[in-house]
Amino acid sequence: ASGATQQFFTESGFPCPPLRNPSDHFLRTINKDFDEEIVESSKARRKTAAEAIEILTDAYQSPAYSEKTMDRIAEMKGIGGAPFRKREQASFSTKLFVLTRRSFVNMHRDIGYYWMRLGVYLGIGICLGTIFYQVGHSYSSIQARCEVIMYTTALLTFMAIGGFPSFVEDVKVFRRERLSGHYGVAEFVISNTLSATPYLAVIAVIPGAMLYYLTGLTKGPDRFAYFVVNLCMCTLLVESMMMIIA
């Protein structure tokens, strides 16, 4: 192929110099970056790249070359290739299972996703629990109870921003894989929500339970469950908002 190309350039009026690489010669002939180059070894005027391209195009369209090309194309079309079998994509449930499992493992390994936030939440729970330790059940303790609930909800939801950098990295991976056609937005959103829910429950239940009994809020499993469920829903809501923003 290289010899045929060199012969074609020579017949078109662009012979390759003896001490020059043929590939470099072909490139210098058709590349406009070399138009300003002065060839010291020859005083003849060099044709510009645009002129060379036009000459080569006209020469290639001549019957001597175009017929050979068409015959070669027809010959290649007659060659049988390997059998092509279209593979079906995985089902929605399979994609969801694989993505949920991968996201769950990733969240477990990445300390910045939830484990660091759990440590911060434990510190917040201890601080608030010691400040509002056993506020009591009198009428005057109503304001203290409201402050405990407000601070707990506000701080736990505000610290959800700590997982933003890790989630942004997941979004980058999602964009590449979505462009490749592996899965869509629905699978990513549902799998991320399912894998994040257990971690959100852990970081809401453990600090919430510690804070609940340190401050001496209303006793009873139903009241405690209501308190924890509210914390879980708040953290899940903020996590969803973070997902939308990212």
Automatic annotation (TrEMBL):
Any single Pfam family the record assigns to this protein: ABC2_membrane
Membrane topology, record value: Multi-pass membrane protein
The ABC-2 type transporter transmembrane domain, residue ranges: 95-246
GO molecular function, one term: ABC-type transporter activity
Residues passing through the membrane, by range: 111-136, 148-168, 189-212, 224-245
GO CC, any one term: membrane
Chief place of localization: membrane
InterPro entries cross-referenced by the UniProt entry: ABC2_TM, Plant_ABCG
Keywords: Membrane, Transmembrane, Transmembrane helix, Transport
Tree of life domain: Eukaryota
Localization per Swiss-Prot or TrEMBL: Membrane
Similarity comment: Belongs to the ABC transporter superfamily. ABCG family. Eye pigment precursor importer (TC 3.A.1.204) subfamily.
Protein name: ABC-2 type transporter transmembrane domain-containing protein
Organism this protein belongs to: Aegilops tauschii subsp. strangulata
